[in-house]
Amino acid sequence: MPLYLEHFKGFTKEEWLENYGIDTDDIFPGVLEGLVVDGKVVGIPLDIWLFYMAYNKGNFAKVGLDPNNPPKTREEFISAMEALLPITPEGLTPYYENPAWTWIWFHLLWQHGGEVLTDDFKAPAFEKAGIEVCKLMLEMQDRGILPMQVADPGVSFQSGESSVLITGIWTIKPWMEQLGEDFGYAVAPQLGNTKAVFGGSHVLAMPAVMVEDPKVLEAATTFIKYLWDHAIDWYEAGQTPARKSIAESEELKERLPHIYAVSQDSEYVRQFQMFPLISEIEAEIAVYLEEILVLHSMSPEAGMKEAAFAVQEILDDYWSRN
To answer: Fewest 10 Å CB contacts: which of 43, 136, 159, 258?
Structure first.
């Protein structure tokens, strides 16, 4: 979406409210950030997809952990994972996550107070916190908590052999159906010094060139308003509310208690910055994360230094042309 921000039809917050009945102040700031261009809101977040902790209640109970009180802090998480080691099959880990899945690293980067780029998008800002995250992940690998190599976590979690995933909310409904009473869900534990959770949003936006005809614009905004008013039906499939009023509502709590529980982290959502080349930057960082966390051929310090250098080259090239 960052590539096309200037091409979307936008309205001021007052226009959205007065003309279309959409109160953009009801949207969590974390997913509205970046969608305001020249004072106009150019996209309406429909939902929030965020990270949560999926865990196996049965496995927790087997080792004496309270299945209804999952870990919330770094110390509690490490302790719980070590307690689960004796019942984890050889070749697997209690927290069986793919270390090459870069989104986990970004999630932890924000939890360690880091950011991908500086606010002006002129320089990388991830090196210091990125080193700390890599050290944490390497520590978990050394303790047998996190895999040393690329892993396919879904099958092992579904079978009950592994016990924990920090993953996307879109998995919550199928695992509820497959694991039944053994399935536990909770907000993602805070493994760093900052309250943050990886997330993003499916955004309703109108390319300006497509809504030049007033009738087409009316049809498009009517559809956006319909989805705004009926968003809770969408959340049932496995998304959390972009609207604060729905996230805090009794209707959500009663109808979708699992979504309600996980959505309590929504105010802490951090998403990728709205920089046009953010995907290219993510891919570049991924190269060095693989060297550090999968191939184990570089130290966190060396890997993050080289990653920052490579990202700076991308930024310098971009700004030389814009």
So the answer is: 159
